[in-house]
Protein: Transcriptional regulator in glycyl-tRNA synthetase containing cluster
Amino acid sequence: MSALAEASGLSQPLVSQHLRTLRQAGLAASTRHGKEITYRLSDLHVSHVIADALAHVREPAATEEVADEEPTHPEQESA
Structure:
């Protein structure tokens, strides 16, 4: 968990809470080896969903410009 906290810049208690939530949702699994706990994604599908979400978030800003434009409705123009 300390490696995750360091890499993310979040506090260890916050990382712990997030990991607990991910485990409860069935998205992450953990294995204990003495005092060390190893976390992993519960299955390959989870990694695909995360990769798709990250790709969507990283899309160029030009996509936002299109979304900000108001759609034209032909029925409103003739009224």
